[in-house]
Amino acid sequence: MPVRRGGPGPARFRPRRTAPAGTARPRRRGPLAYWRQYLAISPFYLIFAAFSFFPVFYSLYLAFQRWDGMGTMQFVGLQQFRFLWDDPVFWLSIRNTLVIWVLSTVPTLFGALTLATLLHSVRRFKGFYRIALYVPNVTSIVAVAIFFGAVFSNNFGLVNAILGVVGISPVPWLSNPWLIKVVISLLMTWQWTGYNMIIYLAGLQAIPTSIYEAAKMDGAGPIRTFFQITIPIMRPIILFTVIISTINGLQSFSEPQVLFASNAANANLGGPGQAGLTTLLYFYQSAFLNNDYGYGAAIVWAFFVLIIILVAVNWRITTRGRKA
Questions:
Q1: What is the pLDDT of residue 198?
Q2: At 75, which helix (H) or strand (E)?
Q3: What CATH number is given for 81-136+177-318 in this structure?
Q4: Maximum Cα–Cα distance across the chain
Q5: Of 85, 112, 177, 303, whose Cβ has the fewest other Cβ atoms within 10 Å?
Q6: Got the DSSP string for 162-182?
C-alpha cells in the first residue's frame, strides 16, 4: 500500500480534473458575442458622445478659430488666448468669481457641518428636519434668484423694510459692488448647505458610538471630541465636499444672470459696475450675445485650467497631515 509523504497512513488518491473523454471544452466567447448587451446600452453612450463628449473637444477646436456662428471659420492660433490675457473684463470676472466662491463656500461647509452635528444629536422629527434643510437644493434656481432679488431689493425689499423698522437706513444690496457679491453668496449658501449637510450627516452616522464612549470615559469634552475624533474621521468626506463645493462655487451663472436680468439689451452685464459678472456669465456674453464663439471657447478653457488648479490646491490643503 502506498504511503503518504510527511506522515503515516494510506495515500489518498484525488480524481483527475480533466474532462471525460469525448467532452469538448467550452470555447471562450469574444467581445462580439455580447453584441446584444452592447446594443441595449448603446443609446446612453451615443447620446453622451453626441451631446457631451463631442462638444467638449469641439469647443477646444473653436478656441483656436474666429467664428461668429454663421460665416467661415478663420484659424487664428493662440491669438484668442493672447487677447484673453490682456482683457481687463476677463480678469474682473475672475476676481468676482473667486470672491463669490470664498464668500459662499466657507459658510456653506461650516454651516453644513454644524447643522449635521446638531441634527445627529436630535432624537425626534429627524426626517422632517432633513427634508426641510434639503428642499433649497431641489428648488428651481431661477425661482430662488427671483425671490432673493425681491427680498434684497433696494427700495421695496423685505430686508430693508425690517431694517427701517429698527431705525436703520436702507442698504443698497443690489447696487453696491461688495453687497452684490454678498447677496449672490447668500443665495448659493442657502441652496447648497442642505446638500452638504446630508453628506456630513451620513458620515457622522457611520462613526461607531463606542469611539465617543471611550473618549468620554477618558475625560474628553464635546469640543475636544469634535476636533480630535469627529474631524479626523470625517476628513475624506470633508475633502469630497470641498472639491464639489469648489467646482459648484466657481460655476456660478444663473444667480447673477437672473438677479440682474442679463440679456442683449442690458449692456451692464452682472449688475452695476459689473460687480456680479462671473466668468461663466462673461462667456455667455461673449459667445451668445456678441456671437464670438471662438473667444467664448477660449474663456471656458482658461477657466477650466483655473478650476483644476484650485481643486488641486484644495486637495493638497485638505489632505495635509493625513498620513501623520
A1: 93
A2: strand 74-75
A3: 1.10.3720.10
A4: 109
A5: 85
A6: HHHHTTPPPP-TTTSHHHHHH
Output the pTM of the full model.
Answer: 0.81
Q: Grid coordinates representing 269? A: 452685464
Residue ranges covered by each domain of the chain: 81-136+177-318
Tell me the CA distances in angstroms from 316 to 96, 229, 319, one per residue in order: 24, 21, 5
Question: Distance (Å, rounded) from C-alpha 2 to C-alpha 11?
Answer: 6
Answer yes or no: is pLDDT of 9 > 70.
no
Sign of CA dihedral 316, 317, 318, 319: positive
Identify the DSSP state of 77. T
Task: Return the C-alpha cell found at 58.
Answer: 469641439
The sign one gets for the Cα dihedral 33, 37, 40, 43 is: negative
CA–CA dist 146, 139 (Å, integer): 12
CA dist 94 and 90 (Å) reads: 6
Residue 200 has a pLDDT of: 93
Half-sphere exposure in the Cβ direction for 265 (13 Å, CA): 1
Q: What is the pLDDT of residue 23?
A: 56
According to DSSP, the β-strands at 65-66 and 74-75 are antiparallel
Q: Cell 477618558 identifies what position?
A: 218
Cβ–Cβ < 8 Å for 252, 303:
no
User: What are the backbone dihedrals phi and psi of residue 225, each rounded to the nearest 5 degrees, phi first?
Assistant: -65, -40
How many Å apart are CA 287 and CA 94, to the nearest integer?
17
Listed residue (297, 311, 296) closest to 57, CA to CA? 297
Q: What is the Cα–Cα distance from 322 to 106, expressed in whole angstroms? A: 21
